[in-house]
Amino acid sequence: MTLKLRCKDYGFECEYIIDDDKTLSLIEKLRNHFEEEHGIDYTIEVVSQMITNRGHSLESIKK
Ligand SMILES: [Zn+2]
């Protein structure tokens, strides 16, 4: 199962899109993008919450 995440859905003027398997590494990719491109060092927990708040279920991800 894959999940598509658009950076602009999280408040940035940015065309970055991740479309990947729904695993913890997907969350880490988005987290790393926020840090490297936008200079914001969110925790995995915060990014997970942001994704959940967009209506995506992360229940199937094993931590
Ligand atoms: Zn971005």
Keywords:
63 residues, binds zinc ion, two-stranded antiparallel ribbon, 2 helices
Outline the structure in words.
With 63 residues, the chain is of the alpha+beta class. The protein has one domain. The protein has helices at 24-38, 44-53; strands at 2-6, 17-21. Strands 1-2 form a two-stranded antiparallel sheet. Helix 1 (24-38) packs across helix 2. The structure holds zinc ion (ZN).
Total number of helices: 2
The radius of gyration computed from the alpha-carbon positions, rounded to a whole number of angstroms, is 11 Å
Q: What's the quaternary structure here?
A: single chain
Shape: globular
Strand content: 15-25%
End-to-end gap: 16 Å
Q: What are the bound molecules?
A: zinc ion
Helical residues, percent: 25-40%
For the largest beta sheet, what order do the strands appear in spatially? 1-2
Number of domains: 1
Mean pLDDT: 94
In short:
With 63 residues, this protein is of the alpha+beta class.
Per-chain topology:
Layout: E1 2-6, E2 17-21, H1 24-38, H2 44-53
Antiparallel strand pairs: 1-2
Helix pairs in contact: 1-2
The structure holds zinc ion.
